[in-house]
Amino acid sequence: MQWRLVVTLIVLIVVVLFSLTNAATVEINYLFGSSKISLALVIILSALLGAIFSALAGLGKQLRFRRSVNEKDRKIRELESRLEESGTGSQETN
Length: 94
Known about the structure:
about 90 residues
């Protein structure tokens, strides 16, 4: 888990340094108009939106994984209950 934090911080530093070296004003064309904005701000906002979309995609995968684990845990409890009912559960033999 700590390696993710280190990689995230390195990427963040690179993005900030890259954006600060590209501080010129650029024109952004929208569907219904345009505006002039700092290129640094465009770079930072793009990186932020990319991080948000990546996190949302990862969250969906994590939720599916958690649902699968919960289903398997429920199945294990059910099978253990059946074993205990049949009397062949985990009995110690000497």
